[in-house]
Amino acid sequence: MVADTKLYNTLGVQPSATQDEIKKAYKKAALKHHPDKNKDNPSSAEKFKECSEAYEILSDPEKRKVYDQIGLDAMLNGAREAPPGAGGGMPGGFAGGMPGGFGGMPGMGGGGTRSFHFSTGGPGGATGGFSFSNPESIFADFFKQGGAGTGDDDDLFSQFTGGTPRGGRGRARYGDSGVGRRRARTPEVTTVEKPLNVTLEELYNGTKKKMKVKRKTYDDGSGLRKVEDKILDMEIKPGYRAGTKLKFKGVGDQEEGGTQDLHFIVTESQKPHELYKREEDNLRMYVDLDLKEALTGWSRTIPTIDGKKFTLSKGGPTGPGYTETYPHQGMPNSKRPTERGDMIVEVKVKFPTSLTVAQKAQLKDIL
Q1: From the centroid of its chain, how far is CA 46?
Q2: In whole angstroms, what is the distance from residue 85 CA to residue 112 CA?
Q3: pLDDT in tens, 9-31
Q4: Which end of the chain has fewer CB atoms at under 10 Å, N or C?
Q5: Residue 104, pLDDT above cutoff 70
Q6: What DSSP character marks residue 35?
């Protein structure tokens, strides 16, 4: 006969349930009530917490044995007296004389069945009661340790955590005796990369941006997952190139091993610029000529990215691919701000798609 069935009822199993049955029941309940799967149902977070706490005790044979004998309230609050029938005592009020409150061990006096006694102790008379781990940590460790052995635990786990075990706050302590297994920590913290879209003009002039990101942390009071907004100040220096990374340490989601780093990768707008094509620190601009202009001469006003204008004229003929270079009119160098690349103007000639017989004859006579 067990002293308390609350935790068994939470998982929907009998007090006689095997460890395999307890694992399967927890897996079913945790996946059903996980907060990431029930964002619009606040009560699911509490159910997830309850089933995780039940699993933490019932999955540990030592804790389960204590729970069966004295019940949950005694475990949480610290029992001041051993259950009736406990063995003899030693100074300090320990049943059977075992430090940490265990009595009736064979050969230790008090004989018979082992009983458990949670004593008060520590500074200020703090209780030696049990405290639960963070429910997310219990969930993460369950899958890290193989879950219910279905073979697809990693895929199921990644649906809720992005594939990285989470948690890390609220480790279990069991009286002053240290009973209870230590949970493995994840030593590595992931880095998340996100694109940062900017225009060519912003990369030329430099700019500052504020980026709002949503990050998952743990509530200090309840230990449950929460989402908060964080504003990041970004400085794009003149001359930055696509692929440049702006790195922010410890501002992402909170994980078991720490907090994620965020890297924002400078990305030029996907739509091509209407005038310029960037080539490292140089800018290339194209001028379209028809065949008549290419043969007889042409003139164009050439704008620079910083607003200046040049007049480019040629008397012709001008061949396709002809280039004119304007030194130091390109992009600034981000590492050497006083230096700039060049602006290169390249000619494209549009040939007619058809000619009449008379036009062909005239061209033959002229050329």
Answers
A1: 23
A2: 9
A3: 999 999 999 999 999 999 888 88
A4: N
A5: no
A6: G
